[in-house]
Amino acid sequence: MKSFVIIPLLLMQSSASAVMSFGSQNASSEFVLRGDYTVGGLFSLHASGASVIESCSSLNANPAGYLNLQVMRFAVEEINNSSKLLPNITLGYEILDTCYIYNNIQPALAFMSKDYVFDTEASYTNYIPKVISVIGPDNSDSAETTADLFNLLLIPQINIFATSKRLSDLSLPSCFQTVASSKTQQGAIIDILTFFNWTWIAVLGSSDEYGHHGIQSLIKLATDEDICVAYQGTIPIKIPGKEKEWNNSILQIVHNVTSVNVNVIVVLSVDIVVLDFFRQVLDTNLQGKVWIATETWSLSTVIYNLPNIQRLGVVLGIAAKYVDIPGIEEYLSDAYNQTKGHSLNPDVKECNQDCQTCLNSTESSSFSFSEDRVSFSIYAALYAVAHALHIVLGCNDTYCNKMDVYPWQITDAFGQVNFSLLGNLIHFDQYGDSPTGYDIVIWNWLGKTHFEKVGSYPELGNLVINPDKIKWQTANNQVPSSLCSPECRSGQEKRQTGNYICCFICVNCSAGQYLNENGICIECSQHQWSTEGSTFCYEKTRVFLTWNDTLTIAIFTMTILGMLLTVVVIVTFIVHLKSPVVKAAGGKRCFLMLPALATAYLSILAYLGEPDTMKCILRLPFYSLALTICFSYISIRSFQIVCIFKMSSKLPATYDYWVKQNGQYVFFIILCSTQVLISCVWVSVNPPMESTKDLTSDTVLLSCSQFTSTYNILQYSYNAFLSLMCFTFAYMCKEVPKNYNEAKCITFTMLIYFVICIFFFTAQLIDVGEYVNPINAGLALASLLGITGGYFMPKCYIIFLRPQRNTTKYFQSTIQSYTKRGTGSTK
Predict the structure, then answer these.
(1) Which parts pass through the membrane (predicted)?
(2) Burial of 407 (C-beta count, 10 Å sphere; 0-12/13-18/19+)
(3) Could you tell me the residue range of the domain that residue 188 belongs to?
(4) 521 within a domain of the structure (yes/no)
(5) CA–CA separation, 260 and 707 (whole Å)
């Protein structure tokens, strides 16, 4: 330990040579056991919240404090009787009364002195104070004060009851805890509130560091868990002579708690303050609530025994874990008659000298040791000191090296302490905390046991609680609610009102929305639907041409029939390729049109089943391109016949140029390339793809997009233009030889397509609902059947049923007849 100067102590001395004699003060004690090394104990043997104390003996005896004192005596004697922990070493103790809250400076300075005398030194590295370690005090305010003092000399202070967050601070390296930290306790409180869904609470705290820090930390944790603190208040300490002001303050707290309409109140306060507070509250209408008690008062028999205390409601407490200490009850039962080992200072007659009163209080008090949960913390603290001393003295099982021990050595040794005590692991982390948790207790108003365990909260969290053990003061033993607003029903979104997240109105999610896991109304996806106030969405019924649908079967059958007819035509034309009818139809050039026609039939199948992008491309661009090939061929073939029978005689030079330059092929390529260009641009820029359209709230139509797009209209318009060309050239061919006269066939085919175009554009302008797919498929199929039936079937009819017309002689006769008519008309 480095050299340092204790400036705070210099302020308490008039000069370096001054002698502070605590023997003439209230710090002297008859509770002394001489030993090789002494451990100090600071306990509240008397209780008071007053800031000025004339005499401790004038105060009420504190049974819990006397019980703590005797547990310390028991632990020290047990350690001294151990043959292995500290062999050949006697551990002593000296116990002083802190009179609860404010009488802690003098006892602390007494332990820091040498025989009640404290001299100022330049360095305290080799300074040996009266004690090597201190157990207590037993409340957070006193513990914080003494921790600052003991830390100056690095005297280890082991807190057995205080849970202030500051005691775990790294700035206090000599401060250790054998009780769970305040962080663990507040985690337990938050988990209890969450477990019972209490989100609208009040928090009260004593007007000390324990209360102030506790309220601030708890509110922060509560906010993180969406728990609203409707009211936070400070319970003042009752000061003699100011009872009226104190009464008014308590009544104001009661009024504020009542006005915010909370049913759960968390009280972060020392027990003596809670005692005075409840005495006053019992005369008000603040009753029938749920009170959550911290470890400072959760096991207070004095508060429990207040008249009519049960009118307050249900008390749920956070308490240290209970550990049964073998032999302790027998030791306490003998304490009344036991005085051996205690010295009485005849020169001092103060409250600490009332040894008989102390023992009487412990023996006769209503405190039941079976309900005590602090004793093990004291017991473990003494054993931790013994183990640290064991390390410093280099003890083995039979011998310890007796030598001067400095407090900083014990502090360092605490970091190495690691042992098991009655099945509980004892060690300290970097913050001085030991691994332990809390029990959850309920105040039992009817049973023999005052405080009944109903759950536990381990150090690492995970609250375990049995709500069936809790007797609520409600009808049918229902868990009381503490909410600003009642919980929303399923499918309702919370809309916050005011500044508190716990206060809200409930609004149904609209149709087409659902309430997600975060309590927010979210729109259903495009293919889903919901009714008002839903918590999930339903998949919409998808409408398309399913394979088992009657219309699908009909379209499929007609498509296959059309393909078979096309195949029949192809086979027929191959077999009769050299026949006059096939030659008149174009001969080998027909095989440009027929495969395109067969491919167009295949595109009709893309209307069947669930649509996807590939099917949509087959439906629209691919179909239009195949149709363009057919119309281009028919128009050029018709124009070719016009040229042969009319242009060749009237415009021979033009006809020769057309023939020599392969005009029919050039125009065919130009006409088809135009449609190919339109299709490529369409597919590249804005391709048709699957799309949806809501028919009803729960039904969606699956189809292809872009039916009314510019590109699709352009394709249909272009094919309509080609069909008009076909119609025009066919009309011009009406006077050619009848075997070459295809006017009726082409006119019939083109009229079918014109009607189909009219139906197509009409269907796009009006809403045909779920019939859009079968209508589009039917129109496309009809146009193809028109070409097959109107253009090719008459030729097959002649081949199979009128073979006499499929001869060269017959064709020559028709040409001769046409020539004679032409000659006759000329004459």
Answers:
(1) 551-577, 589-608, 620-645, 665-685, 716-733, 745-766, 778-800
(2) buried
(3) 182-322+444-477
(4) yes
(5) 64
